[in-house]
């Protein structure tokens, strides 16, 4: 994999160098804040391409981060809902146990009060 990447980088560099050498026509470049009197058109194309790739990668990372945050929020909402249902079930079980315990205590008290001797 690393070998293929190195070969790909060499090919891209060679193509870029050839592009600059073949397109040697000088052009004037007027940017918003500065003015370049003469620049080779091949170099201008490469700089434009590099800037486009960098801006595209940065925007792509930001968009992916937004989607990743959205997926994480959805997952956390599902987890909250699952935990809420689990707490409701635990509360129902505890309430049923408390009712059963109260009934048992009442029954035990009733039996003990009947067994008291009149003396």
Automatic annotation (TrEMBL):
<protein>
    <submittedName>
        <fullName>LapA family protein</fullName>
    </submittedName>
</protein>
<keyword id="KW-1003">Cell membrane</keyword>
<dbReference type="InterPro" id="IPR010445">
    <property type="entry name" value="LapA_dom"/>
</dbReference>
<dbReference type="Pfam" id="PF06305">
    <property type="entry name" value="LapA_dom"/>
</dbReference>
<feature type="domain" description="Lipopolysaccharide assembly protein A">
    <location>
        <begin position="23"/>
        <end position="86"/>
    </location>
</feature>
<keyword id="KW-0812">Transmembrane</keyword>
<keyword id="KW-0472">Membrane</keyword>
<feature type="transmembrane region" description="Helical">
    <location>
        <begin position="42"/>
        <end position="67"/>
    </location>
</feature>
<keyword id="KW-1133">Transmembrane helix</keyword>
């Amino acid at each position: 994999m690393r070998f293929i990447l190195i070969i790909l980088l060499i090919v891209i560099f060679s193509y870029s160098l050839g592009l600059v050498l073949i397109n040697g026509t000088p052009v004037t470049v007027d940017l918003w804040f500065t003015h370049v009197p003469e620049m080779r058109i091949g170099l201008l194309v490469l700089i434009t391409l590099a800037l486009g790739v960098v801006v595209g990668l940065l925007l792509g990372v930001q968009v992916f981060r937004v989607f990743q945050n959205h997926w994480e929020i959805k997952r956390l909402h599902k987890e909250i809902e699952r935990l809420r249902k689990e707490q409701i079930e635990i509360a129902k079980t505890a309430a049923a146990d408390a009712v059963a315990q109260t009934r048992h205590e009442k029954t035990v008290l009733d039996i003990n009060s009947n067994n008291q001797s009149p003396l």
